[in-house]
Amino acid sequence: MPAPPPSVPAAPPEGAVSPEAPCAHCGLPVGRRPARTAAGEACCCTGCATVRDVLAASGLGETYDRLRTVAPSARPAGRPQAPEALALAELDRPEFLDGSTRPAEGGRAVDLFVDGVHCAACVWLVERLPYEVDGVSAARLDLPRARLSLTFDPDRVRLGDVARWLARFGYAVRPSRPEAGEASAAERSLLVRMGVAWALAGNIMLVAFALYSGLGAERGGLATAARWFSLALMVPAVGYGAAPFFRRAWASARAAWRARSLRHLHLDTPIALGIAVGAGHSAWATVTGRGEVWFDSVAVLIAALLTARWLQLRSRRLAGEASDRLLALVPRVARRVGPGGAVAVVDLDDVRPGDTVEVPAGEVVPVDGVVTTGASRLDRAALTGEARPEPVDEGAPVEAGTTNLTAPLRVRATAVGEATRVGRLLAWVERGEVRRAPVVLWADRIGGFFVLTVLGLAVLTAGLWLWLDPAQMPAHLVALLVVTCPCALGMATPLALAVASGRAARAGIFVKSDAAVQRLTEVDTVVLDKTGTLTEGRMELAEWEGSGAALDLAAALDAHATHPVAEAIVRARGVGPEPVTDIEAVAGQGVRGRVGGAAVAVGRPDWVEALSAPLPARWRRALAAWAEAGHTPVAVAVDGAPAAVLAVGDRLRAEAADLVAGLQAEGKAVHILSGDDARTVAAVAGRLGVESARGGVSPEAKREAVAALQDAGGVVLMVGDGVNDAAALRQADVGAAVGGGTTAALVAADLFLTRRGVAPLVDALGGAEQAMRTVRRLLALSLGYNAVGAAAAVAGLVTPLVAAAAMPISSLAVVGLALLQPSFAARPAPAGDRPAPPRPDGPSRLAAPPRPAALADASPRPS
Amino acid sequence: MNVLYVLVPLALALALGGVAAFRWAVRDGQFDDVETPALRVLLDDEEAPTDGAPSPPPDA
To answer: Cβ atoms within 10 A of the Cβ of A620, count?
Structure first.
């Protein structure tokens, strides 16, 4: 591939550049008509070319080298790219206007997902909306969540027009589902609670300082006032701040009572006990004027615990919203053909069996049905794993979830919604959620054990001090209960996992539950899907022999054909500037024509041979071998002589071999399960060195195969991308959906990767390992703290001052170690799955340099 | 030490003010997105035209 490394202006001026080659400035694909810089590098737009020229002229070319070391931005790349036109139609429906927008000053307000925003220039461009589109009064973009808050006047502008304006710059707009607001409200209320708790704790500490520095020893009015003041602040800290802990502790205590089992005691129970005893004893001491007060320790404890909870909630929400965003790519509307032949966009729920729907090329078929008009090719990869597009014409059955590739179709629905094959699969996936046993984290499991131990120690302390010094007994008992409050222990696991999943999200790995991180480290069996997971999932130029120049001529000719094979060649070779004339496409055979004076024919080998001369024996053997591997063989003839042979097929991802080898080196059993043809699967498995591979597996059989592996004692990680993998993803101990996967796979998976390819999976496994190591280290640290604290309390060495020092230190140590953990550390961009050489990571949103960002304003596409 | 009778309520009043401001900020959504505003300051204001690009030509 001729794309230049970002910092070296090496591209041949005006040479043919693949439309998929990265823009020299921003790294986006350059498209069919790249803009050129002065040095001849290909850019996606004149804006990027201008920026690159200005940077080069000012001697700032090294900017690109610096950018390359920045972690790649998590840019979702979705295969089920929703049909643009349909998404626009959904935005303009009156039901959407009523249901998803809300009245606001200046018209109505709406939240939309904007796909493709990733840097400061994107923020600038999107927020120009009010200046550029009449009727839009405000636009605010939330970059990490790709959410645009828009205020507009529905009488003056339609949302579809706003989306069309944004689409010109390469941003796709999707309606956002409203559920996200509730999560945000819960997070806000927890944040307020946390702020109040810290403010109260700060003031209580202020007074505690006075008490510790001598005031406490006096019994004057001031000391009493200080204690009462602390008590007054403690009431809201316990009643409001600690309320969630008491609620959960009460719930778990009731569950434990009903089940007559201590195992049901959550770790919140000893925490609530510690808070209650510490605060209660201190209140009693204040009222009676005798004994020690522990207000400061308890108040800081509450605030620290709330902070850990909030961090955890926030990181979880980010992952949840990322999956929402990808789910929003799927439209919930269809084009129904009315009685008079008029096509109307209606809600998918309103389509009935017997209705006829129209499916333009590029859109996903919304129903199971039979083709009534038209002939096209269907991409069934998502449903069956079959990588090659299959031709359909009148009378052929089509399934919901497949993509119509080449020509519009009309389909009479035979089944809709849950009655479709994909609907039945999804229904099982959703039901499966309940059936699956929740993995209880170790820290929670020890709640019961912890309570028992503390109670035992309490009895020991009480007995010991009744015998030694009965007057001291209550003070030491309270000291024990306060100092053994498992604050650090309760924070350790959630905090370490929250930090890890936040880091993972930045690396494009979204983990839906903390439990998945833990189970990821226990995996010993990996089941891989083939199509779309180990392979690209679409037709690509896989192999070729012969003249490269002939291939470029073939690409120029094929740019005028719509066949998937032709498109694969164009993607791989790009289009040169030569004029193409006399194009003749022969259905089922190939294309011939003149490219810049040369007569070129591209197509089936036997057809090309008939037009030119017999192929050399060496090429025949190559073609036969490629066909054996499941590829489509193609020959190219130039001026009546065979010039090249090539194979178009679903190419193996570059990093697939490394992934499999790495997994096997770690002693994990690797299996391949695919719905594709068994021969193709065997060929792929052979190249990867996987012994256990099965082809032609139905989605249901995939699930059973995973279950069988589990019954045999394996902890199974299933990796897949399609609807046909969804059930298996759900069944597996950990399901991972790879970048560009389908909706169903996203719903079913425990973690999903937004970067293309399977390389992030290696990062995910390694990161999970390190995260769990951190968790274990933190648990050991906090348990050690509790053990030492308990021993000291039994011995009567813990005073309020000791507790006030030791408890925050233990919590801070946990927080610090959790934040400093090395899991999912940012690394230089790994080579992508694209054939492109080192991808310039582009102006990552982490490090967009201000200068290019401002300059890129002139760009018609995001830079 | 009598100064404490003034300073402690004062500290409390300050804390109350802080909590009220914090609560307003959270409700206002100031903490919902802590990344975009950091980028927004990099962008020029409407009054100051950007270098050679007074407005983005939509069809460039």
So the answer is: 16
